[in-house]
């Protein structure tokens, strides 16, 4: 928790995650931070029924690559664990980053999928035959983020870990 001395169970965060799958990570967040509000987003209507037994977890059906209407303002942590397609990652950031609070975090998971032809083919087969998944899009995006860090405009810092990018929102922008 951001406040020293506050027990983890009492920490109150607003967490949003795109890409529900089976709901496992939503359950993890909901159990780990029981006082927090956890909202999952997925394009598949069948996901709506997952996690109904948890009071602090809600699942909404929405495509956050196209619209952020269903995303609340003031999200402390946003996790993109959705399509893992480069163009979708960039589109989702464009739509959703503005909803992250100053000093909040935006995380993009599974970046290795952007240079995996096998993953791209599987995604095309099951979800979108027209998906491109250009690694060049991620590299252009990283360049943009580096420029934003240097200007301290909307991005305070970026950290890259294996398969994951953590973006910290700058103050007040």
Q: How many helices?
A: 4
Structural class: alpha/beta
In the predicted model, the low-confidence regions spanning at least 5 consecutive residues are: none
Largest sheet: 7 strands, mixed
Name the strands of the widest sheet in spatial order: 3-2-1-4-5-7-6
Task: Count the beta strands.
Answer: 7
Write down the overall geometry: globular
One letter per element, helices H and strands E, the order comes to EHEEEHEHHEE
The share of residues in extended strands comes to: 25-35%
What gap, in angstroms, lies between the N and C termini? Answer: 23 Å
Short account of what is shown:
This protein is α/β, with parallel strands linked by helices and 173 residues long.
Topology:
Blueprint: E1 14-18, H1 24-32, E2 37-42, E3 57-61, E4 75-80, H2 86-96, E5 100-109, H3 117-126, H4 135-151, E6 155-161, E7 164-169
Parallel strand pairs: 1-2, 1-4, 2-3, 4-5
Antiparallel strand pairs: 5-7, 6-7
Helix pairs in contact: 2-4
């Amino acid at each position: 928790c951001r406040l020293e001395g506050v027990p983890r169970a009492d920490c109150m965060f607003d967490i949003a995650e795109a890409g529900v799958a089976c709901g496992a990570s939503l359950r993890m967040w909901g159990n780990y931070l029981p006082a927090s509000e956890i909202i999952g987003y997925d394009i598949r209507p069948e996901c709506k029924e997952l996690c109904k037994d948890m009071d602090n977890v809600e699942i909404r059906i929405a495509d956050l690559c196209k619209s952020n209407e269903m995303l609340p303002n003031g999200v402390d942590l946003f996790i993109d664990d959705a399509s893992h397609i480069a163009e979708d990652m960039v589109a989702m950031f464009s739509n959703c980053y503005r909803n992250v609070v100053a000093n909040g975090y935006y995380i993009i998971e599974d970046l290795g999928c952007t240079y995996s032809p096998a993953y791209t083919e599987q995604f095309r087969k099951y979800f979108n035959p027209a998906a491109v998944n250009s690694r060049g899009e991620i590299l252009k995006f990283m360049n943009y983020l580096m420029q934003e860090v240097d200007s301290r405009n909307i991005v305070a810092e970026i950290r890259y870990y294996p398969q994951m990018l953590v973006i910290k929102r700058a103050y007040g922008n």
